[in-house]
Amino acid sequence: MGVRTRRAVTAGLAGSLAVSLLLVAPTAASGHAGRAGGKATATADATLIDQDGVVRGDLVLVDDGTTTLVQLSADHLPKGLHGLQIHPTRSCQVPFGSKASPVTTVALPGLTPGTDGSAELTTSVPSFGLAKLLQTSGASVIIHALPDNAANVPSRYQSDTGPGPDATTQATGDAGLGLQCGVLQAEADSNGSTPATTVPPGPTGGGESAAQAAHSVGRASRRALMRTRRAAVALLARSGGNDLARADLVDTAGRPVGRVTILPDDTGALVTVDTHGLAPGVHGLQIHGSGTCTTPSFASAGPKIGANALPNIVVRKDGKAVSIATAVTPSLAALLRGDGSSIVVTSAPDNGANIPARYTATGAPAAGPDATTRATGDAGAAQACGVLRQVPVTVRYVEDLYITVDHREPTAAESSRWVGFLNGGGNRVVLTHALISSAEGLGGLVDNLYGFVLQAAPSAAARAAYVRYLQQPGSTVEAVDAALAGSDAFYTAAGGDPGSFVAAIYNTFLGRDPSSVERKATQDQLGSGVPRAAIVGALLSTDEYRVGAIQGEYSSLSDADPTLVQYATWLTHLRHGGDLRPLDELLLAAHAFYVGSIDPFNAATPAGDIFA
Prior knowledge:
The strands form three sheets. This protein has a 16-stranded antiparallel sheet that branches. Strands 9-8-20 form a three-stranded antiparallel sheet, with no helix packed on it. It has a two-stranded antiparallel ribbon with strand order 15-17. It is an alpha+beta fold. It has three domains: 40-206, Immunoglobulin-like, CATH 2.60.40.200; 244-359 and 372-391, Immunoglobulin-like; 394-595, no CATH class. 35% of the residues lie in helices and 20% in strands. It starts with a helix and ends in a 17-residue tail after the last helix. It is built from 20 helices and 21 strands.
C-alpha cells in the first residue's frame, strides 16, 4: 500500500488536529465479538427501511469497549432535525419504536438532511455496551420524525406531573414517530458468515485475544471510515471546490479547544467538528449572528441564528468530540456578511424547540415552546466559541496535504509558497510528489507502517534506516511491511506460535482468515526454515493483496472505484517491482481529493490509531 492508504486506513481517517476518536490497534486474527484489554468489543450493521419496507440507508457501529464509532447514511428524509436512537429490540415492526423505548444511556447526535433528503453522519460516542446489547435483547436503530430533546425541558415548564421533564420525555426524548428503522446484526466476517455471539476463551481468558479483538474492531472501523470518506467526497464534489468557513474554538478562559468547519453546497452543508477539552456529555452546536467571541461569556457572539439546524455534539469521557455530518446552514456569503458569525458550543443540549403541547411555560401565552426556547434551544451558557472565517480551497488543500503526509500543519512560509504555486497555475502533482518523497514524508510513512504492523513507534535509528531505504531506487513499501511483519516483535504479539502468526499475517494484509490449505502450507514453510519476512513478502506479492491495495487507494481518496484499465495499469506496475506511492501522488492531486480536503477523517495521526 502507498502512503495515503497507510494513513487513511491504518493510522486513521482523522481530524486536522489529530484528535483521537477510536483507539484500536489492528494486528491479528479475525472475530467480531471478543475482548480487547478486558473490554467487550463488537461490530454491527443495520439496513434502514422506511414504513413501506423500502431500503433507505444503512448504519455501521464499531464498539471497542471504550468508544463506539457510528457511521450512517440515509435518504428520503423530510427537512428538519431528526432524533437518532437505539432501541433494545430486534423488531422493526410498524409503527417503528412501538416495541420498546430507546436505550436512554445511549447519547447520539441527531440528523439533519440536506434539501435533497439525504443525511450522512460519522462520529464516535462513549461505548454503550454494544456486545452485551446484541447478546441480550438485541437492538434496532430508528430515525425519528422530531428532534430528540435530550430531556432538556427546563423547570419553568409545567405538565400534569409537575415541573420539568416528565417520565415520557425522560424515556423517549419526545422524538415522535419512527421514520426509518434497521435491526442491528452482528457484522458478517470476511467469508460472509455471521460469527457466534460467544467466542471461545483465548489467551486473555475471556474471548479472543486482545490482538485479535483489536484487529477485528480495526478492520470494521476501516470499512466504516472508507464509507464515510467516499460519502464526504461525493458531497464535497457537488461544491465544486468552494471555499469554506472555519471557526477555531476557544473556551471561556481563551484556551484553544478545537475547530468547526462548514462547507455549504447546493443542498445544504457539510459540517465537521474536531474538539478537545470539553465537558463530557451532549452539547448544543449553534451558529450565532456576530463574528466576535469575547471571553468569558461570549455574549458578544449575539443570538442564535434561526432554528437550530446543526445536530448536537457528543463529547466523550476524554473531552473529545469529532464528527462529520450533513446540515442546513446559511450560505457562505451570508455567514460572512457584515461582522460575520460565530460557532458556539453550549453547556447543555439544544432541545430543537421540541417541547410538546402537554407542557406550558410559566407566563407563556400558549402551550409548547415559549419564545426563549425557540430562540435558544434552552442550551445553556456558551462553553466555547469561534469566529467563522473564510478559508480558500487552495489553503485548506495545502493544509490537508501536510497533515496527511507530514503529520502536521504547514508553516506560514510553506503555506504561502505552495498556495502561491497553485494559484499561479502550478500542477498539484508537483506538490504531492515533493511532500511524499521528502525525508519528512517518508518518516511519517515509516511511523504509520510501524503503527499498522507493530502498534509501536520506531526508534530514531530504525526510522532513519527505513527512510534511507525508501529513498533508494527500487525500494518498496511492501518490503518494509514484510520486514516488520517478519520480526520477532510481530511474531510475539501475534501469539508466539506458527498458527497465530499465519492467522495474523492473513488478517493484517488480506483482511481474512487463511484457508486450511493456506494455513498448512504456510506453517510447513515455517517448519522448513523459510524466513518469516520472506513468507510475508510472498503474501504481499499475490494479486489478491495487490488488487486490495489498489482498491484501498481509490476507496480512501476517490469517489469512484478504479476502472478495469486502472486496475490493470497499477497491477502491472506492482508486478514489475513498483509500489503505490506514484498512485498516491496522482490521487492526492486529483480533483476528488482537492475538493474533499475538508474531511476531518482523512489526515494522518499517531501511529496505530484508527481514529486519532
